[in-house]
Design goal:
By secondary structure, this protein is α/β, with parallel strands linked by helices. It has ten helices and twelve strands. About 5% of the residues have low confidence.
Length: 251
């Protein structure tokens, strides 16, 4: 009996050791607009695969600099498609691993109910002191915001009112804290399951700016990590797609 128990215990330990060996961590650089979706996806990913996702959030341009300077990221979820393409071209990514995981939507948002009208005409009224955007040099959503202002002929008029966040998270914080009456942010930050969760918003028509195609890729540091490949595969699957769509992204 004791021998049977010993053998059973040994088999259990071997199984646990095998599971431990097959589970890995993956270091992921995540564009700030995708914070909420990836946090939701990470829970399912860990439960379904056993791998753990460790995320850092920030502006795409800043991540590019960090990656070029040797940051330990293994997967990059960008807020555009040009930065991953550049990293791929420069030899910093696993060839063929790049794909579009989401197409972002820009929104003009205010924390105040009824402040932003359904057509965004509040922008033309000028009856506000501050308009928040993300830094257009490092954050694709900030660049898209400047393209909208150009299209509306408002660039010069709003220039004195602009407050720039380092990334889209900070741009949102300026508005949610009341330091700016309104701002251009990512729809995913203020949207869940088919509706804007608070305040008032104008969802900017997609033809008013260049498409915000968000690409992901496996970086060279993640080439031998099974968790990196598993994450990329998971992001292409139906469970992740459901989460991504629930935050207002297109696929």
């Amino acid at each position: 009996m004791s021998h049977r128990l010993t053998r059973a215990a040994a088999a259990l330990f071997a199984l646990l050791a095998l599971e431990s060996a097959s589970a890995a961590e993956v270091q992921v650089a995540v564009a700030a607009n995708f914070t909420a979706p990836i946090q939701a996806i990470a829970k399912d990913f860990e439960k379904d695969t056993g791998h753990k996702l460790i995320a850092a959030y920030g502006a795409t341009g800043q991540f590019y600099t960090q990656i070029k300077n040797g940051a330990p990221f293994e997967v990059f979820l960008s807020a555009d498609d040009t930065t991953p393409a550049k990293l791929e071209k420069e030899g910093d990514a696993v060839p063929g691993s790049r794909f579009t995981y989401a197409i972002g939507t820009l929104v003009l948002w205010s924390a105040q109910e009824g402040y932003v009208d359904a057509k965004g005409d509040v922008l033309k009224s000028g009856q506000y002191k501050h308009l928040s955007i993300a830094n257009p040099k490092t954050a694709p959503y900030g660049l898209a915001a400047t393209q909208v202002l150009d299209k509306l002929g408002l660039t010069a008029a709003v220039k004195p009112k602009l407050v720039e966040g380092q990334n889209i998270t900070q741009a949102l914080q300026f508005v949610s804290s009341g330091n700016a009456e309104l701002g251009f942010v990512a729809l995913s930050q203020v949207y869940k399951d088919g509706k804007v969760t608070s305040g008032s918003a104008w969802i900017v028509p997609a033809d008013m700016h260049e498409p915000i195609k968000q690409d992901a890729l496996v970086l060279k540091k993640g080439e031998a990590n099974p968790a990196a490949k598993a994450l990329v595969d998971y992001l292409k699957g139906p469970k992740a797609a459901e989460v991504i769509k629930s935050y207002g992204y297109q696929l």
